[in-house]
């Protein structure tokens, strides 16, 4: 049985220019003060549980203490999120040369794990909300990403183009093409 996905897309996702500029924002999306961590799916929780041991040497001590105390994810309502340290940085963040970086990306790049990172992280600045049988792709504006907006203009790259790999990972190549062509 084929289940068709109904996807609604915020016009900003299709039109607004965006290209991450981590040198300027310092990885702010991974260290936001007073917020829940990134949304996480059940299948990602299972994957992370299986690779946590491989990541243990990459995870900062205070984050590992938080993971051991509270786990690496939390529930808020019906949704699940990656835990944070002190309501700020993701428990899977490490700081290198003043930049917030991801232990998943580091281990993936080094070939130690096959998991790149939670798809919600890779999709950022898009957030997916679900309403009934609809999935809504919305642009999540952060003032910390103003440099990404400026760089997006310079690179002439829209949000949907910037996160293409993540959209394909989440929805498939065919849906990505429909989103872009339908634009």
Topology:
Layout: E1 6-9, H1 11-15, H2 22-25, H3 42-55, H4 61-70, E2 73-76, E3 79-82, E4 84-85, E5 89-90, E6 93-96, E7 99-102, H5 103-109, H6 119-123, E8 126-131, E9 134-139, H7 146-155, H8 159-162, H9 164-171, H10 173-181
Parallel strand pairs: 1-9
Antiparallel strand pairs: 2-3, 4-5, 6-7, 8-9
Helix pairs in contact: 9-10
Description:
This protein is of the alpha+beta class and 183 residues long. It has two domains: 1-18 and 125-183, no CATH class; 30-115, no CATH class. 42% of the residues lie in helices and 20% in strands. The chain contains ten helices and nine strands. It has helices at residues 11-15, 22-25, 42-55, 61-70, 103-109, 119-123, 146-155, 159-162, 164-171, 173-181; strands at residues 6-9, 73-76, 79-82, 84-85, 89-90, 93-96, 99-102, 126-131, 134-139. The strands form four sheets. The protein has a three-stranded mixed sheet with strand order 1-9-8. Strands 2-3 form a two-stranded antiparallel ribbon. β2 and β3 form a beta hairpin. α9 packs across α10. It is globular, with a radius of gyration of 17 Å. The two termini are 29 Å apart. The model has no long low-confidence stretch (mean pLDDT 92).
Tags for this entry?
alpha+beta; 10 helices; two-stranded antiparallel sheet; 183 residues; 2 domains; globular; 3-stranded mixed beta sheet
Binned, the helix content reads 40-55%
Structural class: alpha+beta
Order of helices and strands: EHHHHEEEEEEHHEEHHHH
> Tally of extended strands?
9
Name the poorly predicted regions. Answer: none
Global geometry: globular
Strand proportion, as a percent range, falls in 15-25%
Oligomer: single chain
- In the sheet with the most strands, the strands line up as 1-9-8
């Amino acid at each position: 049985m084929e289940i068709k996905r109904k996807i609604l897309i915020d016009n900003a996702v299709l039109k607004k220019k965006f290209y991450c500029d981590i040198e300027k924002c310092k990885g702010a999306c991974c260290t936001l003060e007073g917020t829940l961590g990134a949304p996480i799916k059940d299948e990602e929780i299972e994957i992370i549980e299986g690779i946590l041991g491989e990541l243990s040497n990459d995870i900062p001590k205070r984050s590992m203490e938080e993971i051991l105390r509270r786990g690496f994810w939390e529930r808020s309502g019906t949704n699940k999120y990656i835990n944070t340290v002190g309501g700020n940085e993701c428990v899977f963040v490490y700081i290198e040369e003043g930049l917030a970086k991801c232990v998943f990306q580091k281990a993936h790049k080094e070939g130690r794990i096959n998991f790149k990172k939670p798809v919600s992280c890779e999709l950022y600045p898009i957030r997916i909300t679900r309403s009934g049988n609809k999935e809504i792709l919305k642009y999540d504006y952060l003032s910390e990403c103003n440099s990404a907006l400026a760089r997006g203009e310079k690179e002439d790259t829209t949000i949907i183009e910037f996160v293409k790999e993540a959209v394909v990972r989440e929805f498939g190549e065919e849906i990505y093409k429909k989103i872009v062509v339908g634009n």
